[in-house]
Amino acid sequence: MTDDRFENLLRARLPHLPADEPLRDDADLTQLGLDSMQAMELLFDLEEEAGITVPDSAMNAETFATPASLRAVVDQQAEEAA
Amino acid sequence: MSAPAALTTQRPPATPLDARVGAVLPVLREDADRIDDAAAFPVRGLAALRESGLMGLLVPQEHGGLGGSSADLTHVAQELAGECLSTAMIWAMHCQQVAALTRHGSPRLKAHLLPRIARGEVYVASVTSEKAKGGHLLSAHSPLTGEGDGTLRFDRDAPIVTGGAHADGFLITLRDGPEAAPHRVTAVYADRDRITVEEGPDRWNPMGMRGTHSIPLRLSGTVDETAVVGRRGGFKDVAVADFVPAGHLAWAACWLGAVRGALRSVLKLLRSPAGRRQFDLSGQQLRARLARVRMELDAMAALLTQVTADSDRHRGTAGAESPPVQMRLNALKVYTAERSFACVDELIRVVGLRHGYMRRSGLPLERLFRDLRSAGLNYADDRLLAANGAMCLLDREVSLAD
Fold it and tell me: What does the alpha-carbon distance between residue B113 and residue B196 come to, in Å, rounded to a whole number?
């Protein structure tokens, strides 16, 4: 998944992030409005885009803490799937 | 980060009991389709259960068993049924016999039999149905006859015995004597190799639950007074205190576990990359259907937990026979029978023809649909509802059990 595609999917679930503001890798996703329902929808978006299934054990606060932590989980699953 | 943290699925740590179950599950998973195809008894599954120690789950520790509780019974039944409902039911019915033997067997019978059950050497089948009376548990036609020297003789036809070709022992209900009324039912235990067991023709070819291989048997022989389970003519007390509650709890747990397994398989498909190409997980209708199944699972599980507590609390007391407690026990059986079948039907709707209706689609839905069709017929819901309806009419205050 390209960085742009990842960021676009992420941005769509972050209501408190203005469109003209850059998304930092270490941004606090909760502060930007990612609640548990939105996190679930985001996960489904990413799974569909990347053709992966994130294991239940990875569905925790650490995974959804920052763009970097989420990207790491997605990349790891994509690597395992490939 | 409290909000996304709510996604985390907390699992309790694995227990020694889970390790025993874990050793059996792969065998059940491997054989489930094969025994369904062949309508054959799960020989390998039973061997794994014997090896695991789970045949002695309800045998007290002083007799070498695991000393498991009713909650352990329903936990293990669910796990087994998540892989193979037929094998789970065979195990559950064995546990139902063990519950009766453990609590109502004579000291000599228990000392002789329970350690062998705990070691996995004895699989106990029940012989409670009879041609003349059908499945009614609390009446019997075929009588015990005395020999005058304290031995008890019987010669009984059993039209359908689950596991009858494989059981090592039988819990048999009989009329207490040639002159006794049909409701004077006595239960006796007999080892297979101590009596004459004639197997009738194998015509077993049902729609579902095909692994619960059942055949007609004719059992004849003698036992002594120590083989009597409960009082002479008093099987009703055994039934009310243990046999019926253990049966209802174990069956309900099996059905609930089967639906949990079904939902697990559906979710695995839906979340897989292949599933994502076929199903739109954002669809409101799909989500509502999944939510309904999950809601039914929670309702069944809550009722099961409540009736398990009722059964532990009232065992051996007059409270067990109180109408509100009896109605809830019967309701557990009827409710889980109805809803488990409805849940599988709903899951078939979710995944459609290819994954839901086709045999060997990779999902167990087609098999479970046939299996669970029998849930309401087995110990018939109609009869339980008629009994509950009568008790309901008598309780004009509508006092729900505590």
Answer: 19
